[in-house]
Amino acid sequence: MRQGPEDMFGDEDFPAYTIGRAAEIVGTTQEFLRRLDEAKLIHPQRSAGGHRRYSRYQLRLAARAREMVDQGTALEAACRIIILEDQLEEALRQNQNSR
Question: What positions does the domain HTH merR-type occupy (predicted)?
Answer without folding.
Answer: 16-84
